[in-house]
Amino acid sequence: MSTGTTISTVVMLLSLCLQQSWADAVQPGVLYSDQACIECHAEREPDLVQQWRMSAHGEASGVDCSGCHGERHQQPSQRMTVQAREDATCAGCHQGSAAHSYVTSKHGVINTIEASRQDWSAPLQVGNYRAPGCSYCHNYGGDHSDTMAPERGPAVRQWICAGCHSPRYVREQFENGVRQLAIADLKLAEGDTLLATADHLEEEQRLALKQSQLDHRRNVLYGVGHQSPDYQWWHGQPALDGDLIRIRDAVDKSQRREPLRGD
Ligand code: HEC
Ligand code: HEC
Ligand code: HEC
Ligand code: HEC
Ligand code: HEC
pLDDT tens for residues 151-205? Predict the structure, then answer.
């Protein structure tokens, strides 16, 4: 046996012992606090825990490890990872337009139709899923921040889509998204300009009109992010047009009221 082989055998045995002591430390069925998950896993996977800390699910929002994985290591332990991948886990918290825009997209429709045969035990990687669920897009490759965040850039999010679509098609989808949001922002700016001219509008009504615009702008974001035509074209742009009509109407009325009040 050469020295090289002996050394590598010793290293292998040592790492086996180390893994063994880790595995001994976790007990299936024991209820762990989130503090315990974080402390133990920060030693095992510092990068993963750091990604979570910096994410929207980090400490500030209080969505801890157990929010997605459950509170107990299971036998076999794989189970905790499987639970976190399931659409139902994400949609349990993200109800409303986040979930509904996905359900009305082609990806959502495919996953709903195939729900009974859906196998979430495969890692979130290309080739393992026919259509992406929430976690496939947002936690691709086990990333614990958000792989769809615009600041991650096209190299991350467009590359993930391009595992299933042509790169050119994907680029066009994202370019369309940028245009749609720019149009939505023009409508918001026009709303602001109109509202600024209405001196006699009740504050409560002003806030409600503004909030409605913000909600519908968010629908456009969900529409383009989740590839849901309903959210782009029904709950999104036309709803923003409706907001502008309501704002104009409210401003007109408030101005008509003015001379009466001045009497
Ligand atoms: C005392 C240390 C320790 C604590 C506490 C702990 N874990 Fe683990 N965890 C481990 C070890 C070791 C493994 C790898 C063991 C294995 O795969 O059998 C693991 C594996 C995992 C996996 C991957 C499972 C798989 O095999 O795919 C997840 C997910 C996980 N833990 C989440 C949690 C959560 C959530 C908590 C808190 C409720 C937690 N852990 C608490 C040590 C710990
Ligand atoms: C927003 C939901 C969510 C939260 C919160 C979350 N995870 Fe995960 N986690 C996932 C998903 C989804 C996967 C599966 C990734 C994959 O298949 O590539 C996963 C996978 C893992 C794995 C297995 C990694 C591997 O490579 O096999 C571990 C370990 C883990 N998570 C630990 C944690 C710990 C510790 C915390 C808290 C600090 C945490 N997770 C918080 C969703 C979450
Ligand atoms: C226990 C509840 C809970 C679970 C489970 C959960 N989330 Fe979240 N999520 C939140 C909260 C709270 C926030 C921060 C507030 C917000 O922006 O809605 C958030 C934020 C986000 C954001 C960023 C939103 C933003 O405004 O920047 C994304 C994307 C997201 N979650 C996706 C997911 C996905 C994908 C899953 C499943 C793998 C998941 N979430 C599981 C509660 C949850
Ligand atoms: C095809 C990939 C894909 C799937 C599947 C998907 N998302 Fe998204 N999601 C995106 C993209 C892209 C965005 C837009 C991000 C941006 O530009 O800010 C987004 C936006 C979001 C946001 C808002 C983020 C923000 O910055 O305000 C949340 C929350 C969210 N998704 C949760 C979910 C949940 C929950 C599911 C499943 C019910 C899901 N997503 C399914 C790609 C996906
Ligand atoms: C795991 C594979 C997979 C991933 C990843 C994926 N898709 Fe899809 N996508 C599909 C399948 C399958 C369909 C339905 C068949 C079709 O129309 O091509 C589909 C349909 C679509 C459609 C609707 C097409 C139509 O004719 O109505 C759009 C748009 C789309 N995807 C864009 C995206 C974008 C953007 C991403 C990334 C954020 C993405 N997809 C990620 C598999 C995927």
Answer: 998 999 999 999 999 999 999 999 999 999 999 999 999 999 999 988 888 999 9
Confidence of residue 226 (pLDDT cuts 50, 70, 90): very high
Domain boundary among 95, 126, 161: 161
Q: Burial level of 66, CB count in 10 A (0-12/13-18/19+)?
A: middle
Q: Which ligand has an atom closest to residue 70 CA?
A: 1
Q: How sure is the predictor about 12, in pLDDT bands with cuts at 50, 70 and 90?
A: low
Q: What is the pLDDT of residue 27?
A: 81
pLDDT of 17 reads 45
Taking the CA atoms of 207, 212, 213 and 217 in sequence, report the sign of the dihedral they define: positive
Pocket test for ligand 3, best of 37, 53, 90 (most atoms within 8 A of CB): 90
* DSSP secondary structure string for all residues of 51-113: HHHHSTTSTTTT--HHHHH-SB--SSTHHHHHHHHSHHHHHHHS-THHHHHHHTSHHHHHHHH
Quick one: which ligand is closest to 65's CA? Answer: 2
**Statement: residue 55 has pLDDT above 90:** yes
Is any atom of ligand 1 closer than 6 Å to the C-beta of 26? yes
Model pLDDT, residue 263: 45
23 Cα–ligand 1 center, Å: 9
Nearest CA to ligand 3 atom 43: 93
- What's the domain count of the chain? 2
Q: Is the pLDDT of residue 260 over 60?
A: no
Give domain status of residue 132, yes or no.
Answer: yes
The residue range of the domain holding 242 is: 167-262
Write down the pTM of the prediction: 0.92
Task: Please check whether residue 103 lies inside any domain of the structure.
Answer: yes
Q: Is there a domain that residue 16 lies in? A: no
- Whether 145 maps to a domain, the answer reads yes
**Which of 115, 142, 161 corresponds to the end of one domain?**
161
